[in-house]
Amino acid sequence: MKYRRMPIEEESPEQFGYERIRYNLTESSVRDRSLADLGIELRDLLLFYGDHAGNEGFRDLVAEQSGGEAGGVTRDHVLVTAGAAQALFIVATSLLDKGDHLVVIRPNYATNIETPRAIEADVSFLDLAFDDGFRIDPEKLMALVTPRTKYVSVTLPHNPTGVMMGEADLRSLVGRVESAGCRLLVDETYREMTFGEPLPVAATLSERAISVSSLSKTYGIPGIRTGWLVCRDAALMKTFLAAKEQIGICGSVVDEEIAARAFARREAWLAELRPLIAARLQVVKDWMAGEEMMEWVEPSGGVVCFPRIKPEVPVDVDEFYRVLGEVHGAYVGPGHWFEQDRRHMRIGYAWPLPEELEGGLAAVSGSIRAALTL
Fold first, then answer.
1. What angle (nearest 5°) sits at the alpha carbon of residue 87, between those of residues 120 and 255?
2. Is residue 254 packed enough to be buried (19+ CB in 10 Å), middle (13-18) or exposed (0-12)?
3. Are residues 60 and 139 in the same domain?
4. Which of 110, 146, 205, 308 is the most exposed place for a label (fewest CB within 10 A)?
5. φ, ψ at 193 (rounded to 5°)
């Protein structure tokens, strides 16, 4: 393994310092919640080694959310992990050796790319294009598959753009992966934030599909570090469990108990959350409608978008980011976090309060104009 720090982590707001940020538009989640917000009290919780696969009650809830027995999913098909990041690490290190091949869409959440690189696997990218609406084309994706390909990796809804794939395209992709004899990894972290009907959990569609998700983004509790993967291939799940045990034996019983209790109330939370997300997104829509120097692909899921300063706008991009941070105290996710041109920026719109979101968007507009080179 050849590790290197990822820019998205090295420059994250928690590393940069929250106290230095007035308008935080970098967060890719809803606003963080406390134990008091959740109404959870853990005074009598026994701090023992937990089930190595994860809290059984929580795994039952994830299985039910994934389609339950009708979708072929039971608790035995669920592995609880330390966030989606650990799930992605387990998948990559279990399926890849040096010189193995995978196909991944780009831009993407950095772990989906950097862990295979650390293993020294060969990575082929399907680069999503702004002019194509960042659409994931199953045919173009599968054209990159070779006999050495171990898995194909996609994120739905997509991070950082918020773009979705239709169910017909997902099913087509699953069928093509089965025919090719490789596997499909679907990062479903934003699945429940889809503005329309959510896609089926990919793992319910095939034993060759692996679904990954977490409580960090939709539930606003990233501090408990709880995620999961779902896979109906029993032999592969045994490998995934072995990987988890060698990383840390089991998860935190504290984190997993909080996760189970929070997830048990997910329907009520989602009913409260969806109008909030819609209202915040409307703020961004209104801003984009009046901002002639920027353009975007409107998201259809998640809580992030990936607008860009129009290519024809004569702007000093480095000066833009300097003014944005030093003058306005605003922070966005610059394009280089996702190996994209820095005219792009990821804007998270559900974490900031309404006045913070409006102030941050105004700061982006003001910083563009302050950095014009004409």
1. 140
2. middle
3. yes
4. 146
5. -100, 10
Residue that terminates a domain, selected from 244, 264, 284: 264
> Whole-model pTM above 0.90?
yes
Tell me how many domains the chain contains: 2
Is 172 within the bounds of a domain?
yes
Dist. CA 258–CA 225, nearest whole Å: 10
Which pLDDT value is given to residue 195?
87
Residue 202 placed within a domain: yes
Domain co-membership, 62 together with 172? yes
Bridge-partner residues for 80, per DSSP? 228
List the 304-305 sheet strands across, edge first.
304-305, 345-348, 333-334
Q: Look up the CATH number of the domain holding residue 11.
A: 3.90.1150.10
> Each residue of 223-276: pLDDT tens digit?
999 999 999 999 999 999 999 999 999 999 999 999 999 999 999 999 999 999
Confidence check: pLDDT of 7 > 90: yes
Question: Is 287 a member of any domain?
Answer: yes
Residue 372 per-residue DSSP state = B
Counting every residue, how long is the chain? 374
Helix (H) or strand (E) holding 334: strand 333-334
Distance CA 179, CA 163 (A): 26
Instruction: Indicate the burial class of 274 (C-beta count within 10 angstroms; 0-12, 13-18, 19 or more).
Output: middle
pLDDT at 342 exceeding the cut of 90: yes
Neighbours of 101 (CB within 10 A): 19
